[in-house]
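Narrative summary of target 7.
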Amino acid sequence: MTNIIETKFGSLVNTSKIAAGSASNIKKTGAFYNFSIKVSQDDIREYSFTDLARAEYMRRIMIGHLEEKLKKSLKANP
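Modeled conformation, tokenized:
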């Protein structure tokens, strides 16, 4: 329950679900495994790897970083 944060509007949000929803699934395109992360409305970052295991690992890492960013931004705007 530590992932649930109250926003300035009074609603409760689960930052891990928001962060996971901002990341696309891993797709194989040619020799590469690609996924993208939507950091903000205008900032969509795409990542490409040659190994599926590395792509899965980095996707988990990037979702974790995005979750921490969301926690900081929601706590900074009470």
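The two ends are 19 Å apart (CA to CA).
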